[in-house]
Amino acid sequence: MTRHTRRDLLRLACCSAAGASLVSGLSKFGLVSALAQGTSDYKALVCIFMFGGNDSNNMIVPIDSRYTQYVQARSVLALPQSQLLPLQTNGQANYGMHPNMPEMQGYFNQKNLAVLANVGTLVQPTTKAQYQAYQNLPENLYSHSDQQDQWQSAQLAGTPVSGWAGKVADNVQTFNASAQFPPILSISGNPIFCTGITSRPFTINPGQPPGLQGFDQTAASQARYTATQQLLTFDSGLSMVQAANSVTGQAVKFAQVLSTALQNITPLQTKFPSNYLGQQLQQVAQVIAARSALGVQRQIFFVSYGGFDTHADQLPQQVQLLTYVSQSMSAFFQATQELGVANQVTSFTLSEFSRTLEPGSNGGSDHAWGSHQLILGGAVQGNQIYGTFPTLALGGPDDADQNGRWIPTTALDQYAATLATWFGVPAVNLPSIFPNLTNFPSSNLGFMG
């Protein structure tokens, strides 16, 4: 699942690695102001990125009179109506969820999970006629790398150098006045999502202790460790070397803070699935458990899972993929309940696009545009499908062409701004994070309490 391209070099140019399990883009400019006044509440956002383009047409399916239209268009990819898990809203079940997501169905019906329908990257509200005339469209709509960048940055043209979560972190620095640790942590590499104008992410691998590895408590080992720290503070007279040393030194310092905090938490009783997504979310839960020791009041986390580029054999692949997503998100929500922060932690999905309603060859589907996303947490106004569900007709009013590529009816900017508002970003600052937000009628979709 290699996603690094030429543009990644621009992002990582100022970053330094400290040991095999420590990759961090921290800088002195990313530290929160010690003069700011913090607050006593805590909130966290947890992004779950499904790399490859999740086919949400089979994640959320109409089970009312529109099901016939779905079957006609989906053909060999259509799921049997009897297997779909009903989503009860206002005493009716007009939609069903993929049969391998019973945990998410349960949370939807219990009002902890919301679905946002047909959301995507948009410069402005876009009609089919405008799409066909190429008016104000995001660049390279069906490109994996471009759409991943755009979903993570809200910048729909050019090469982004910062992500919307990083800029959200920039805007809530006052909440973390006494923080001993950065506000953003990635358990999945160093994505553009986490890099702000001043905020920089701390990155760890799930299940591995943070910090420099290969040192123990023997005198010789501690001497080597001390020498390593001295090298990082040595004045070489070279500004670039000094800057890199400063970054690495900060990374080592924060790794020590995190390592100490994690050693002192009470082990979680919640059982997580053993898949990689479950391991990442377990690591997030452990860091949240250490929030008091870290002194943080606002945190953002990034985790991911790959394999959603289902050009062939989609049905059996989605069985495993969506099972992992459902079970892992469920375990994480249970962990937040165990920690007493279920109302303060919101997890949400992103993916670069959905896939065509019409099947491709070999039982797969092609790249598309608008997609459905999940939002889970105690503060979520669940048991609702927000946004406008597309008309499931090939070549119909919501189809960009003839294959079932939905023109989004809700913008990424609106989706992310709703999360950012709940997180504490002032309304006046939202346009600086989401540059196309002012083109849309609402900056709050209402799915957060």
Description of the structure:
- The chain has about 450 residues and is an alpha/beta fold.
- About 35% of the residues lie in helices and about 15% in strands.
- It has helices at about 5-10, 65-75, 100-110, 130, 145-155, 165-170, 220-235, 240-265, 275-290, 290-295, 315-340, 410-425, 430-435, and strands spanning about 15, 25, 45-50, 60, 85-90, 90-95, 115-120, 185, 200-205, 300-305, 345-350, 370-375, 385, 410.
- Strands 3, 7, 8, 9, 10, 11, 12, 13 and 14 form a nine-stranded mixed sheet that branches. A three-stranded antiparallel sheet has the order 4-6-5.
- A hairpin with a 2-residue loop joins strand 5 (about 85-90) and strand 6 (about 90-95).
- Helix 3 (about 100-110) packs across helix 11 (about 315-340), helix 7 (about 220-235) packs across helix 8 and helix 9 runs parallel beside helix 11 (about 315-340).
- It is globular, with a radius of gyration of 22 Å.
- The relative contact order is 0.21.
Strand content: 5-15%
Structural class: alpha/beta
Low-confidence stretches: 1-39, 240-247
CATH topology category name: Alkaline Phosphatase, subunit A
Helix content range: 25-40%
Strand tally:
14
Mean pLDDT over the residues: 88
Secondary structure tally, helices: 13
What is the terminal-to-terminal distance?
Answer: 36 Å
Q: In the CATH hierarchy, what is the architecture at level 2? A: 3-Layer(aba) Sandwich
**Strand/helix succession:** HEEEEHEEHEHHHEEHHHHEHEEEEHH
What best-fitting shape do the alpha-carbon axes yield?
globular
The figure for the number of domains is 1
* CATH class wording: Alpha Beta
Radius of gyration: 22 Å
Tell me the major beta sheet: 9 strands, mixed
